[in-house]
Write a sequence for this structure.
């Protein structure tokens, strides 16, 4: 009787377990580096080697993003240069999730075709593949664009390898300091000096089409705001009022700047400036310092720093004027606001227990996340994909650039510039 | 004074004798009727003695003795002793004949009774035989039915036994599985699978905090993954590719310490660690 009961209980359990005979396992993932293989590109041309090691550019881009672990060439079981020769089983054995193969073919004296294909090893299919014309001068840009497409396919986020960064350097030159406004690829390569001066250069800002930079120059011992076109080097002064002319930022439509003007009494307030007409509109009138204005991506609001409540905090005011509203409340010091291009987050310099660090605030949830770990970090700027920030930090006595993912998990130093590097700003996506 | 002179005594004696005789015959006859077997054997003994005593003419029927009694002599004669003796002899003969007749009648009746008895016995025997036959037939039928029932029961028992044997492994396996579950081996097994997939899952940047994916994984003994089906997933294409890659990279999945814990189907619920 007991035995029967036991058996029937077991049968019940058996029936129950057979009904949904399945192990249910909860898996919690973390952002982890995806193992990928970028096979050295094939080369067909007159020279013994291609003008640029395209695979190396892509490897470095992916590695620097912090989201990928490209395997070493030595670990590759095969080195195909076209998709037809890719053996998914081999790559599965190696343990990579994706393989990039490609080639560069010379088609003229300074004409090349760059071809690449990205394969999903476990899905056994091509994810993306392109052929791009290039010259020796544009080969690097083409390689970055290939990296962007690969990155986007594998992460679901637009790549920013093809974007640029502007920053200011200061170098000792004899008794003087030489200030330079520099634009480079986002990886620090391909540096171009836009402007040089023995007087300080400050606050570079990208136009929405990434063809112009606005900046403040103290040449002639007074502050002026210039807008300079990168391709031509032409520049024009847009503001040189008495007192301080500072902290320019473009409106999303590119027609206006938000600026800080001091006026004769030296009281800093936020103004909008029409670039064409040079007309200004005053947005703040407070006796306290109001500065470092920036536009919201939708163009409706201006975020700025004000110490009207004592310490510096971030405020928001309508771009057509109105009553400013305080945005930050956490801590005694929140300054230099910059919005993510998707409008969801606000980056700022935050006093974190005595250290000035970069913090990111979610505008919906209002929670603040400190993403840098220096002592005097400054000038945060979002990459156009809203996923990464660049900022300046102090190393020894010089400023250097660092990037960090917006979640604070992946931080990279950027080997760029020489001397004291400061005020980096990330370009928008280039418009081809 | 005694009226012997009128022959009262011999007459009454004769009457008494008749009465006794008839009475005994009646009693005997009655007995023969009610006790058909053993009293008749006593009468049979009687029959063998009678022919020596009874003369042949007894067969002639005699008139009833009563008229003799009802016709007394008008005048008793003093010297009628011879006549009386003759009369007594006649009377005796008459009585003997009567007895003989009765005896024969009895024999006849006995024979008849015997015959009837025999017939009855024969009938009874036949009936018994018939009954016997019928009983045997019924018994045989009953036995046949019993055999069928027994066979049926035996078959049922065998069937149950076979079923039980077939289930024994299943039950034993399930019992072992439950024991393994109790011992914590299942938790270890599930943790091993979870950790391997977590190690191999490179969640892409687009995988947000609200990510929820349910994935059915089919494996064969040894842990080789033979199927990955994404049931629901609010992640983008990159996330789904990463999930599939994570599972396939994890093939073969860890094997349980107890084979009973192996399960061909695994449901994975994936999310992002906060």
């Amino acid at each position: 009787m007991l035995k029967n009961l036991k058996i029937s209980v077991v049968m019940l359990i058996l029936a129950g377990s057979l009904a949904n005979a399945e192990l249910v396992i909860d898996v919690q993932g973390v952002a982890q580096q995806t193992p990928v293989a970028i096979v050295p590109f094939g080369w067909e041309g007159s020279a013994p080697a291609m003008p640029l090691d395209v695979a190396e550019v892509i490897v470095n881009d992916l590695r620097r993003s912090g989201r990928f672990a490209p395997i070493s060439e030595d670990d590759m079981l095969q080195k195909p240069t076209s998709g037809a020769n890719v053996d998914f089983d081999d790559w599965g054995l190696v343990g990579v999730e994706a393989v990039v193969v490609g080639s560069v073919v010379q088609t003229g004296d300074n004409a090349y075709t760059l071809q690449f294909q990205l394969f999903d090893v476990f899905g056994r299919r091509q994810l993306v593949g392109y052929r791009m014309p290039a010259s020796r001068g544009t080969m690097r840009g083409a390689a970055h664009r290939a990296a962007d497409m690969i990155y986007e396919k594998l992460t679901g986020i637009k790549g920013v390898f093809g974007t640029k960064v502007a920053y200011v350097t200061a170098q000792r030159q004899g008794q003087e300091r030489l200030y330079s406004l520099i634009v480079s690829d986002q990886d620090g390569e391909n540096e171009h000096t836009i402007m040089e001066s023995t007087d300080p250069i400050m606050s570079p800002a990208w136009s929405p089409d990434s063809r112009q930079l606005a900046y403040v120059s103290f040449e002639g011992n007074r502050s002026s705001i210039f807008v300079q076109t990168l391709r031509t080097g032409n520049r024009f002064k847009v503001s040189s009022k008495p007192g301080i002319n500072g902290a320019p930022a473009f409106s999303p439509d590119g027609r206006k700047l938000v600026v800080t003007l001091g006026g004769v009494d030296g009281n800093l307030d936020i103004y909008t400036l029409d670039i064409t007409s040079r007309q200004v509109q005053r947005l703040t009138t407070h006796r306290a310092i109001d500065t470092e204005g920036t536009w919201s991506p939708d163009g409706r609001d201006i975020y700025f720093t004000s110490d009207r409540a004592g310490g510096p905090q971030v405020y928001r005011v309508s771009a057509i004027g109105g009553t400013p509203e305080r945005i930050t409340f956490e801590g005694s010091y929140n300054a230099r606001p910059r919005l993510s291009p998707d409008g969801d987050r606000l980056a700022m310099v935050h006093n974190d227990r005595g250290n000035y660090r970069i913090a990111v605030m979610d505008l919906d949830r209002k929670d603040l996340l400190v993403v840098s770990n220096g002592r005097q970090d400054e000038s945060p700027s979002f990459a156009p994909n809203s996923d990464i920030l660049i900022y300046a930090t102090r190393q020894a006595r010089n400023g250097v650039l660092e990037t960090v993912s917006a979640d604070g998990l992946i931080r990279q130093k950027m080997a760029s510039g020489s001397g004291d590097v400061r005020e980096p700003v990330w370009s928008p996506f280039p418009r081809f | 004074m005694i009226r012997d002179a009128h022959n009262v005594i011999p007459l009454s004696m004769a009457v008494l004798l008749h009465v006794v005789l008839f009475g005994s015959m009646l009693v005997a006859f009655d007995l023969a009727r009610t006790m058909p077997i053993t009293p008749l054997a006593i009468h049979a003994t009687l029959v063998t003695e009678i022919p020596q005593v009874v003369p042949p003419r007894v067969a002639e029927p005699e008139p009833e003795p009563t008229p003799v009694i009802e016709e007394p002599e008008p005048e008793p004669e003093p010297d009628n002793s011879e006549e009386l003796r003759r009369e007594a002899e006649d009377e005796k003969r008459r009585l003997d004949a009567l007895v003989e007749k009765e005896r024969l009648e009895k024999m006849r009746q006995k024979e008849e009774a015997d015959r009837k008895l025999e017939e009855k016995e024969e009938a009874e025997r036949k009936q018994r035989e018939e009954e016997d036959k019928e009983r045997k037939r019924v018994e045989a039928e009953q036995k046949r039915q019993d055999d069928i029932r027994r066979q049926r029961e035996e078959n049922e028992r065998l069937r149950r036994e076979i079923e039980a044997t077939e289930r024994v492994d299943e039950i034993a396996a399930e019992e072992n599985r439950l024991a393994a579950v109790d011992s914590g081996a299942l938790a270890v097994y599930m943790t091993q699978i979870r950790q391997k997939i977590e190690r191999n899952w490179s969640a892409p940047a687009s995988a947000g905090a609200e990510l929820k994916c349910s994935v059915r994984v089919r494996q064969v003994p040894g842990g080789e993954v033979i199927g990955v089906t994404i049931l629901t997933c609010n992640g983008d294409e990159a996330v789904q590719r990463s999930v599939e890659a994570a599972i396939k990279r994890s093939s073969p999945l860890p094997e349980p310490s107890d084979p009973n814990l192996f399960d061909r189907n695994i449901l994975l619920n994936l999310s992002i660690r906060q």
Remarks:
- The mean pLDDT of chain A is 91.
- Residues 164-426 of chain A form a domain with the Neuraminidase fold (CATH 2.120.10.30).
